[in-house]
């Protein structure tokens, strides 16, 4: 039996809720939850860093540093809001 099609915007709400759950779980010390966020955003973080820095090797280092910074500052992330834009601000800075 085919599943019901999703209403417009429902997938984004589900993804956002899922990210919020991952942030909350990471805040409780669950490393795998933060690892999932890293997996989701690693490529985008490298692209943003490369756009800012121009050098692929420096961009990889900067993206890695940004993830470390995000982990340290994770309590500042509002789990009700999308994680990606918050992280990309850290990457760009």
Essential attributes:
single chain; mainly alpha; 4 helices
Name the shape in a single word.
elongated
Helix and strand composition category: mainly alpha
Strand composition percent: under 5%
- Average pLDDT across residues? 85
Computed Rg:
15 Å
Low-pLDDT residue intervals, each spanning 5 or more residues: 1-16
Q: How many DSSP E strands?
A: 0
Largest sheet: none
Fraction in helix:
over 70%
Distance between the termini: 49 Å
Task: Write the H/E string, N to C.
Answer: HHHH
> What is the number of helices?
4
Structure characterization notes:
This protein has helices at 10-27, 31-53, 56-72, 83-92. It is an all-alpha fold and 93 residues long. Residues 1-16 have low confidence and may be disordered.
Quick synopsis:
The chain is built from four helices and no strands.
Secondary-structure map:
Elements: H1 10-27, H2 31-53, H3 56-72, H4 83-92
